[in-house]
Design a protein that fits this description.
By secondary structure, the protein is an alpha+beta fold. The chain contains six helices and 14 strands. The longest helix has 20 residues.
Length: 233
């Protein structure tokens, strides 16, 4: 059974604060993070600490919320699938992220992650979505490589400045971009019935986004997915 990696250090010792650029083990990263309860988001990427800046509404909060609405509706309609918002994910010894949104298959339903005794996600969620300011953001470089290497099956990056969404699927160890169909719908390979009207999402037309999703939920592929999941329950 996997146990907490929280260390048993001297409680009276002064714990240094996390600083962007620190190079730490995951164990030391967690020790310092736990000692900073007012810190909202910090990530360890390839052994380097990254501290989040305050987040703006239009360039992060709103698109983040729209992703939650879309993926949350899929979760509600798909027993055995779980949704997480900024949940800590322990990927490997050098990488501990807080992705904006994650969608995973519950371990009891055949998923590839495990919830640790201290309530963190361990392993690679099946799908992760990040909101990035632009194509220059770390989400499309180091984080993308880490997600690929650890086996995140699908990765969505919403580049707000460029008004663009990339959706990657893992094939033979590499990320391949998913293309939209003639109706501008992208369909998940890992979560059958998870359909996205990309243009509608970029315009903020959530009613149309949910209409396209409902078509996916009504599809035969989603019904078959529900049947497969039920066999694990």
């Amino acid at each position: 059974m996997t146990t907490s990696v929280e260390p048993s250090f001297n409680k009276n010792a002064r714990i240094p604060p996390l600083e962007s650029g620190d190079r730490l083990t995951r164990r030391e990263f967690e020790r310092r993070y736990h000692a900073m309860p007012n810190t909202k988001k910090a990530e360890l990427i390839e052994g380097v600490v990254y501290m989040a800046s305050p987040l703006r509404f239009k360039s992060h909060g709103k698109p983040h919320g729209d992703l939650i609405i879309w993926l949350g509706n899929y979760k509600v309609a798909t027993p055995g699938v779980e949704l997480g918002d900024n949940a800590t994910v322990r990927l490997d010894l050098d990488n501990e992220f807080q992705p904006d949104v994650l969608l995973l298959i519950d371990e009891q339903f055949g998923g590839q992650t495990h919830i640790s005794d201290d309530d963190y996600v361990e392993g690679a969620p099946e799908l992760i979505a990040e909101v990035a300011a632009s194509s220059a953001a770390n989400d499309l470089y180091d984080k993308k490589r880490v997600y690929r290497r650890n086996g995140v099956q699908e990765y969505i990056v919403w580049q707000v400045f460029e008004n663009k969404i990339d959706w990657f699927t893992l094939e033979n160890g590499e990320y391949i971009a998913l293309d939209a169909d003639p109706n501008n719908i992208i369909k998940s390979h890992i979560f059958p019935g998870l359909w996205l009207d990309v243009a509608a999402l970029l315009r903020g037309e959530m009613a149309q986004v949910l209409t396209a999703l409902q078509q996916g939920l009504n599809s035969q592929e989603h019904q078959e997915f529900l049947h497969r999941l039920s066999k694990h329950s």
